[in-house]
């Protein structure tokens, strides 16, 4: 603070607290709705939590919304976890390897490889929906965990991040390792990967959230309910035909769907912020 | 493009290392993208029996199709509103948080988590909040004399998806604005204070100009977000309605391909979207290069 | 233990820049050979070629009679101490020292024994579990040394290992390195740009300039009989003075017949080199010096000024109790046996 201005300070805290409250409000209401019976919610939403918490969450986790033909949320949560982990770890693994090759080796077609990876930056799933779907269908990967995750794990962003980080690793470490008798893969495993730990963790947070929050892709490649992810599955419930939507259960599902990534982001806030700013550099 | 000064020597290892990424890129990116380009110049007859080469006819048809042009316009309005709203709110909050150094981290914690919420979930939450019969937001609007109904009113529906999309993006923008503000040397602000510039003057004459690279960068990022990552919001809530009032381009590509089964048109739309992404990416990279020189 | 032979070594960079045009030197077993020269003279490139970190364009490097040109660094039986130490930041001191042995497949018990032994020698026994970032600069330098000695290599390579230390620590560590190398009797190549480090450490001193060797020999020989003007200027501090002169049948003269030496020569136009420490105050001396700046260093002092008769710059190191004042003019002389004569064109030594 450069000078003392009590009024301004008060205004600041007021604005920030108001902002935070407005931000949290939709989640709060969703939580409130998830603790009442459907009848109570449809009668006009109360503003304080009710007593149906365990009842509602047990219902969605165990049974799902039978009327909407959706599977239990427990299964969807597991599918989401598998997809998010596979995407995050897969992206990290292939990007680590390819950026290692691009930075630490000179080989013919190196620049071509780099540009091939680079171009993926320009082709988000959303702009090549149908042909990508066709490829996945031809490979028989519809309704499978592989189909949910593999097409999304090529990532120019992660490759760039690692490339940038590797370029800052002192040359002498590589030389010392060579004198110490470490070949390329030993150097990669013993020196480079341990040195990248912070970057790995930061990237994991971002990619886990990215994977978890996928919507369009699971919508395309899954028709079998047992492969639904929770983020796309919620739509099935919200549009459950002509019957009144069961808002209390939908909101319980929404809370469950947003909880894992929110926990990850809050738990690893420092890493996440650092990673985000690094990636966009 | 540089490598390390000291590189390893190996005949086949580097190829093995890049292979997984190259294979995935080729199968799921390059091949589909080239298919999209290929299909965009073909037309299939109604029974899918034969296809013929039609040149740029699919594109010509698109740009004379009022539905497509409307969708284009909808997307532009939507993007402008999302970017403007989320950046404006984020900037105000970041400036406030930057001044209260001690509690900036606390505020950052309570403000960043909406970024983790999936766009589709964000849509459903706001959809519920403004539900015309039971939503508390709609009720509040009613008390203010406005009859909110996003099922029937296109403007209400648009406002809803804008709010849901911006809500999530404020967190992201806030982080970058706060980081940008905190990177401005304290001594600069102090020098200005000694030069008798009050807090508002300091903001306009020092912080905002120094923040302009961040503003520009976020503008591109937000437009990309609004264009390409908001499919879930529309699909999970308005479904493009009422009428076609909230059909954004990405939603239209999907609907024409999977519900309308109009392959040539959908492919042509994909190609147009690719051109837009490439243009935005190029702008972003030019910007990054510029920043490197600073 | 091994000798090192460099035979017509060439280094041409991919861009076509010739860093080393062809250079030969022999280093005997157990010798500490110092490569010294200004930055960019090729001394580090040469060291890195011996280490195997830089490809050799032409010629042959052999260690202990074995040609090593195409061997990986790890197979050359060498150890290297880097300027910035290059310690692995995520490994403890122990792991840093043990890594090379581990990669060789040395049994665990032996690794432990050797690391402990090295840690004992270097006074690192209490720090084995620490990470490099928890150590001071001097301690890191020791770990880098430790990593080199646990390997018991045939050759030590030092790449300016002291330049990241402060002046006091540098002097102390210099003595320790010398002591350690003599105790272990390991052949060593040591690269530095600091002439006093080079003088004090070397058994064999190699002065390099623009990729070529200017002179090789024991430090004292280079000091007493520098083969070129470049070596004369580089070795010794403050550097040697040069005054244009004439060396003919009537002896060595500068300016208008100012005679420094009576003995006849047949060289003609020369550059006369005089070390600052060989100049003495002498009221009957031939040189007349305008004093500009006087530096008192305690036991001695440096006097900077101009030779009146030729206008040449001059510095003299005097050990007199009283030094002249700036603005004074003093007479000086030099023992004729201490004069160095160089060709004015080529810079080569003439006598």
From TrEMBL, chain A:
Protein topology in the membrane: Multi-pass membrane protein
Any Pfam family the entry gives: BPD_transp_1
SUPFAM superfamilies in the cross-refs: MetI-like (SSF161098)
Listed PROSITE patterns: ABC_TM1
Record's keyword terms, sorted: Cell inner membrane, Cell membrane, Membrane, Transmembrane, Transmembrane helix, Transport
Chief place where the protein resides: membrane
Gene Ontology cellular-component terms listed: plasma membrane
CDD domains: TM_PBP2
Cross-referenced Gene3D superfamilies: MetI-like
Parts of the chain that traverse the membrane: 7-31, 82-105, 112-130, 142-162, 191-212, 247-266
UniProt subcellular location: Cell inner membrane; Cell membrane
InterPro entries attached to this UniProt entry: MetI-like (IPR000515), MetI-like_sf (IPR035906)
One GO term (biological process): transmembrane transport
Domain ABC transmembrane type-1: 77-268
Complexes and interactors: The complex is composed of two ATP-binding proteins (UgpC), two transmembrane proteins (UgpA and UgpE) and a solute-binding protein (UgpB).
Function: Part of the ABC transporter complex UgpBAEC involved in sn-glycerol-3-phosphate (G3P) import. Probably responsible for the translocation of the substrate across the membrane.
Similarity section: Belongs to the binding-protein-dependent transport system permease family.
Descriptive protein name: sn-glycerol-3-phosphate transport system permease protein UgpE
Gene that encodes the chain: ugpE
TrEMBL record, chain B:
Cited InterPro entries: MetI-like, MetI-like_sf, UgpAE/MalFG_permease
Cell location: Cell inner membrane; Cell membrane
Entry membrane topology: Multi-pass membrane protein
Pfam families: BPD_transp_1
Record note on quaternary structure: The complex is composed of two ATP-binding proteins (UgpC), two transmembrane proteins (UgpA and UgpE) and a solute-binding protein (UgpB).
Keywords: Cell inner membrane, Cell membrane, Membrane, Transmembrane, Transmembrane helix, Transport
Family matches, as PANTHER family: BLL4140 PROTEIN (PTHR43227), SN-GLYCEROL-3-PHOSPHATE TRANSPORT SYSTEM PERMEASE PROTEIN UGPA (PTHR43227:SF9)
GO cellular component terms, A-Z: plasma membrane
Transmembrane residue ranges: 12-31, 72-93, 105-129, 157-179, 210-228, 267-288
Protein name, entry field: sn-glycerol-3-phosphate transport system permease protein UgpA
Domain ABC transmembrane type-1: 72-284
Biological processes per GO annotation: transmembrane transport
Function according to Swiss-Prot or TrEMBL: Part of the ABC transporter complex UgpBAEC involved in sn-glycerol-3-phosphate (G3P) import. Probably responsible for the translocation of the substrate across the membrane.
Origin species: Tranquillimonas alkanivorans
Family named by the database record: Belongs to the binding-protein-dependent transport system permease family.
Chief location of this protein within or outside the cell: membrane
From TrEMBL, chain C:
Cellular component GO terms held in the UniProt record: ATP-binding cassette (ABC) transporter complex, substrate-binding subunit-containing
GO biological process, any: glycerol-3-phosphate transmembrane transport
Annotated GO MF terms: ABC-type transporter activity; ATP binding; ATP hydrolysis activity
Domain (ABC transporter): residue spans on this chain: 4-235
InterPro entries in the record: AAA+_ATPase, ABC_transporter-like_ATP-bd, ABC_transporter-like_CS, ABC_transpr_MalK-like, ABC_transpr_MalK/UgpC-like, Mo/tungstate-bd_C_term_dom, NA-bd_OB-fold, OB_MalK-like
Keyword line: ATP-binding, Cell inner membrane, Cell membrane, Membrane, Nucleotide-binding, Sugar transport, Translocase, Transport
Top-level taxon of origin: Bacteria
UniProt keyword Translocase, yes or no: yes
Signal sequence coordinates: none
Any coiled-coil regions, as ranges: none
Signal in keyword set: no
Family named by the database record: Belongs to the ABC transporter superfamily.
Name of this chain's protein: Carbohydrate ABC transporter ATP-binding protein, CUT1 family
Organism name: Tranquillimonas alkanivorans
């Amino acid at each position: 603070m450069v000078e003392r201005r009590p009024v301004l300070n008060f205004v600041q805290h007021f604005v920030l607290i108001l902002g935070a409250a407005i931000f949290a409000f939709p989640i709060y209401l969703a939580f409130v709705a998830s603790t009442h019976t459907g009848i109570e919610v449809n009668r006009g939403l109360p503003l304080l939590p009710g007593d149906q918490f365990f009842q509602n969450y047990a219902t969605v986790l165990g049974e799902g919304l039978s009327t909407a033909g959706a599977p239990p949320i427990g299964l969807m949560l597991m599918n989401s976890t598998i997809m998010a982990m596979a995407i995050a770890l897969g992206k990290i693994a292939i990007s680590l390897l390819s950026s290692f090759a691009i930075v630490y080796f000179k080989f013919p077609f190196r620049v071509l490889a780099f540009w091939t990876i680079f171009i993926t930056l320009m082709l988000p799933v959303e702009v090549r929906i149908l042909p990508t779907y066709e490829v996945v269908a031809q490979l028989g990967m519809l309704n499978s965990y592989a189909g949910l995750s593999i097409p999304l794990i090529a990532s120019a962003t992660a490759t760039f991040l690692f490339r940038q980080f590797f370029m800052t690793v002192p040359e002498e470490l590589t030389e010392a390792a060579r004198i110490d008798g470490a070949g390329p893969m030993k150097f990669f495993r013993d020196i480079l990967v341990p040195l990248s730990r912070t970057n790995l963790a930061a990237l994991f947070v971002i990619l886990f959230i990215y994977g978890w929050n996928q919507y369009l892709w699971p919508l395309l490649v899954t028709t079998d309910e047992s492969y639904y992810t929770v983020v796309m599955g919620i739509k099935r419930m919200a549009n459950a035909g002509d019957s009144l939507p069961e808002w209390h259960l939908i909101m319980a599902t929404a809370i469950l769907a947003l909880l894992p990534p929110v926990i990850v982001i809050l738990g690893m806030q420092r890493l996440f912020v650092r990673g985000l700013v690094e990636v966009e550099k | 493009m540089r490598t390390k000064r000291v590189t390893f020597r190996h005949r086949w290892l580097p190829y093995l290392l890049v292979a997984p990424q190259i294979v995935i890129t080729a199968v799921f990116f390059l091949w589909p993208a080239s298919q999209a380009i290929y299909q965009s110049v073909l037309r299939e007859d109604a029974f899918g029996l034969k296809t013929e080469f039609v040149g740029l006819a699919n594109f010509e048809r698109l740009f004379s199709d009022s539905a497509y042009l409307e969708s284009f316009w909808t997307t532009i309005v939507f993007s402008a509103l999302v970017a403007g709203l989320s950046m404006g709110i984020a900037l105000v909050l970041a400036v406030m948080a930057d001044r209260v150094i001690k509690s900036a981290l606390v505020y950052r914690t309570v403000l960043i988590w909406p970024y983790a919420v999936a766009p589709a979930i964000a849509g459903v939450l706001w959809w519920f909040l403004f539900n015309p019969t039971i939503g508390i937001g709609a009720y509040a609007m009613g008390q203010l004399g406005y009859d909110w109904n996003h099922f029937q009113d296109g403007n209400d529906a648009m406002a809803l998806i804008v709010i849901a999309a911006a809500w999530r993006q404020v967190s992201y923008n806030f982080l970058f604005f706060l980081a940008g503000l905190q990177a401005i040397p304290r001594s600069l602000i102090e020098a200005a204070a000694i030069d008798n510039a009050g807090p508002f003057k300091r903001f306009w004459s020092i912080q905002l100009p120094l923040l302009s690279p961040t503003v520009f960068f976020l503008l591109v990022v937000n437009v990309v977000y609004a264009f390409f990552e908001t499919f879930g919001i529309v699909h999970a809530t308005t479904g493009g309605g009422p009428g076609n009032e909230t059909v954004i381009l990405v939603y239209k590509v999907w609907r024409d391909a999977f519900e309308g089964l109009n392959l040539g048109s959908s492919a042509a739309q994909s190609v147009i979207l690719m051109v837009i992404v490439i243009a935005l990416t190029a702008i972003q990279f030019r910007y990054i290069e510029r920043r490197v020189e600073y | 233990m091994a000798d090192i032979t460099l035979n017509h070594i060439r280094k041409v960079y991919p861009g076509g820049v010739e860093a080393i045009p062809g250079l030969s030197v022999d280093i005997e077993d157990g010798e500490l050979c110092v490569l010294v020269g200004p930055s960019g003279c090729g001394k580090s490139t040469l060291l890195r070629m011996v280490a195997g970190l830089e490809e050799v364009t032409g010629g042959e490097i052999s260690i202990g009679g074995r040609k090593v040109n195409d061997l990986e660094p790890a197979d050359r039986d060498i150890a290297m101490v880097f300027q910035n130490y290059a310690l692995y930041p995520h490994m403890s001191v122990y792991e840093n020292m043990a890594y090379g042995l581990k990669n060789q497949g040395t049994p665990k018990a032996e690794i432990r024994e050797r690391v402990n032994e090295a840690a004992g020698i270097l006074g690192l026994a209490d720090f084995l579990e620490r990470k490099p970032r928890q150590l001071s600069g001097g301690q890191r330098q020791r770990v880098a040394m430790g990593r080199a000695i646990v390997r018991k290599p045939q050759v030590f390579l030092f790449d300016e290992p002291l330049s990241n230390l402060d002046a006091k620590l540098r002097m102390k560590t210099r003595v320790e390195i010398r002591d350690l190398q003599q105790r272990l009797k390991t052949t060593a190549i040591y690269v530095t740009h600091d002439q006093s480090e080079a003088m004090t450490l070397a058994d064999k001193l190699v002065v390099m300039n623009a990729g070529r060797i200017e002179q090789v020999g024991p430090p004292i020989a280079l000091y007493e009989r520098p083969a070129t003007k470049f070596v004369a200027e580089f070795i010794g501090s403050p550097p040697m003075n040069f005054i244009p002169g004439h060396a003919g049948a009537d002896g060595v003269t500068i300016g208008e017949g100012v005679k420094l030496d009576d003995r006849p020569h047949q060289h003609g136009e020369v550059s006369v080199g005089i070390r600052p420490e060989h100049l003495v105050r002498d009221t009957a001396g031939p040189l007349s010096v305008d004093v500009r700046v006087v530096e008192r260093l305690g036991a001695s002092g440096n006097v900077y000024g101009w030779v009146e008769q030729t206008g040449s710059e001059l510095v003299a190191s005097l050990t007199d109790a009283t030094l002249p004042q700036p603005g004074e003019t003093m007479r000086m002389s030099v023992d004729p046996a201490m004069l160095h004569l160089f060709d004015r064109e080529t810079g080569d030594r003439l006598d």
